[in-house]
Amino acid sequence: MPRADTSHRESGRSPSARSLRGLDALSFLMADVRDGIGPFLAVFLKGTLHWSSADIGLVMGASGLAAALSQIPAGMLVDATRAKRAVIALSAGIVAAGCLLIARFPTLPVILVTQVALALVSAVVGPSLAALSLGVVGHRMLAARVSRNEGFNHAGNVTAAVLAAMLGQYAGTVWLFWLVCMFAAASATTVLLVRPSDIDHELARGGEVLRTAEGRGRPVPLSELVQRRDVMMFLATVVLFHFGNAAMLPLAGQMIARAAPGQDVVALGACMIAAQLVMVVVAAAVGRAVRAGVGRRKIFLVALAVLPLRGLLFALTDNPYAVVAIQLLDGISAGIFGVIATVIASDLMRGTGRFSLGQGAISLAVGIGAGLSNLTGGFVVDRLGFPAGFLALATVAIAAFALFALFMPETREYDDPAPVPPEHALSVPGSPRSTTNCAE
């Protein structure tokens, strides 16, 4: 694909410090909003409402499948619209309202319908944030920017997990929903820090090489994308990765709730905090590795190798302290995935005008995998117990590793080979090269 003017346009980009700080703050605050109540919902339903694992799996599975169905339309919407900031603000507001509804009317029909509705709305949040990042810093800086985003995202998750554990222990698990509302309201305001003038909307949709004299070209047809083997292999791997991964933490929380009543919220909070702290370090390391020229394929294989090991270890113990220690492995696999999936999507979609659609396709794969994971994990646990459930998920994770190792090519060849100047490097908070303005 021709890229005659890409380097010139991207080398001249100088986004304001305000917009970059806005992306930092948005990544931090959206951490709890993007996933809603997350695995704490399983603890709330199991420990407070005493639901069965099958009913919990039904709610979480339906939510995941609803999110899956909305991902492609959501990605196309984000590619088409220039009101990405408004989309994020509106989505955050609806998430806040949905959490309040669950807290006020915690019945199966209400929670099921609300979770499905929140899944539909939340589908636009991830692609919108990724598109804003790409539109502000460009392709050459994207790996560094995504690494920084993920660092703030994981820091936000740690903060939310600490607050959630304290609220759950001393005020009741229902207050976790109010916590999400606070993060959502702050997110809706913070997005305004990103200046519209700093956003290149053609870069944001990965269509800069499609520019015409009128300034906007037509995106690549969907039929062309679905015929690409590399795209399909990566999406299939993502499905299997999340099939093996998504139910592990919720099932671990349920296992703790059964084995150590009264310690479930604190232990699950500790699981999340431990993993998120590891993710902060891993996200920074992945960003540096990508900038140093390490292939995307090698990095992702590490994440795929760690996942089945985690499932095997979960199957061997229900000790709360051991579960927290094992959950550290999730920090490695999820920390890698959070950065590398966006970078690979940028590689594959560059020049197509379909970057957010690519993000939506990845989220679709994540949703399908997560839905299958929660449904399968819940039913296997109900019938055969927790060890069998974790072993089943670990088996799927092994299949994901094999598929990617055998059939997925390296995607770095799609990237601009020009190195990122050191003074332009972005990193997560606390690293030696942390900056606020990528053009300093």
Plain-language structure description:
By secondary structure, the chain is mainly α. It has one domain: MFS general substrate transporter like domains (Growth Hormone, Chain: A, Up-down Bundle). It contains 19 helices and no strands. The protein has helices spanning 6-11, 17-34, 40-48, 53-80, 84-104, 108-122, 125-137, 142-170, 175-190, 201-204, 222-225, 229-245, 248-259, 264-291, 296-316, 320-326, 328-349, 355-384, 386-407. Helix 2 packs across helix 8, helix 4 (53-80) packs parallel to helix 6 and helix 12 packs antiparallel against helix 19. It is globular. The relative contact order is 0.17.
Q: Per CATH, what is the topology? A: Growth Hormone, Chain: A
Secondary-structure element order, N to C: HHHHHHHHHHHHHHHHHHH
Care to count the β-strands? 0
User: How many domains make up the 3D coordinates?
Assistant: 1
